[in-house]
Write a structure and sequence with these properties.
By secondary structure, the protein is an alpha/beta fold. It contains ten helices and 13 strands. 27% of the residues lie in helices and 24% in strands. It has a six-stranded mixed beta sheet with strand order 10-9-8-11-13-12, sandwiched between helices. Strands 1-2-3-5-4 form a five-stranded mixed barrel. It starts with a strand and ends with a helix. The C terminus is likely disordered.
């Protein structure tokens, strides 16, 4: 029997497939994980013991995680690429801001990808999020330069792609890595939804040393399960607001209904995008609805 440390790339039906120097090893988890009510996740760095001839083994332990998303179930994520299209479907700024908040709350770098720039203008979206300090890329099927730039940015990172169905996630990934052969489908004009059918999370090792995971749409990033932020913590998920908070005359200001709030003045003066501020207020209201016992229950792994 050999011992090794490797990353879990896939988990299906109680089997975990761990990357080693010998190849992919099919593993079961030791019973103590179940006793500790702990689920192994794609992305975990695992310590395994295995038979190199049969390429079968067991997971004995995992390293401490940098982060862990619930839906999709993936850990140690470095970048979250949020794909939205100029049209079909129209971009939902509140959903984009929610996903950015989820990323930042979990110590993940959010990146915005604007697709279908051949069908609509991307300027206003780009302006909002570049002004807020985030990386923004543009893509369309007729110009491969955007896909190439995104591909280069994946180096040595675990990257998750998400976005509303029909925005072109799989088309983009196929353009970057045609060897993955992800299924794509035309957008339904009636429902403005794609027919992407990813069933589970899987990490794909890519040529520049990183890993890529594709997820089946906004619904796979479960907002309630992943966005467990106290009301007074929501502001930290909007780093573009930071320069204006220190100027606020109220030390306990939540920057929502207070008079003479410096943050609200920044919105009025065009220094902060109104849509970003509206998302902040909406997320504060959502945070009020989450009870402490609900948060504790959701955080159990």
């Amino acid at each position: 029997m050999k011992t090794a440390q490797g990353r879990i790339l896939k988990g299906i039906g109680g089997f975990y497939y761990v990357e080693t120097e010998d190849g992919l090893v099919e593993c079961r988890a030791r019973g103590h994980f179940r006793n500790d009510d702990m689920t192994l996740l794609v992305g975990d760095m695992a310590e395994i013991e295995y038979d190199a001839d049969k390429m079968k083994g067991v997971v004995n332990a995992i390293e401490e995680r940098k982060n862990a998303l619930v839906r999709p179930a993936v850990s140690n994520v470095d970048k979250l690429y949020i794909v939205c299209s100029t049209v079909l479907p129209q971009p939902n700024l509140f959903n984009i801001d929610k996903l950015i908040a989820i990323a930042l709350h979990n110590n993940i770098e959010p990146v915005l990808v604007i697709s279908k720039t051949d069908l609509g203008k991307a300027h206003s979206l780009r302006e909002i999020y570049q002004k807020a300090g985030f990386s923004v890329y543009e893509t369309n099927p007729d110009d491969k330069s955007g896909a190439e730039q995104i591909k280069n940015s994946l180096s040595d990172k675990i990257s998750v792609f998400t976005g509303n169905s029909g925005v072109g996630k799989s088309t983009l990934i196929n353009a970057m890595f045609p060897e993955l052969l992800l299924k794509t489908g035309e957008v339904s004009l009636k429902l403005s939804r794609g027919r992407h059918t990813t069933r589970h999370v899987e990490l794909f090792p890519i040529e520049n040393g990183g890993y890529l995971a594709d997820t089946p749409g906004f619904s796979s990033i479960d907002f309630e399960q992943n966005l467990e932020i106290e009301k007074d913590e929501v502001i930290s998920c909007f780093p573009d607001f930071a320069p204006y908070i220190s100027d606020c005359r109220f030390p306990d200001c939540l920057h929502i209904g207070e008079r003479d709030c410096s943050l609200k003045k920044a919105v009025e003066n065009g220094e902060i995008s109104p849509s970003r501020y509206e998302s902040y207020v909406a997320l504060c209201k959502e945070a009020e609805k989450i009870k402490p016992w609900e948060k504790q229950g959701r955080s159990k792994k």
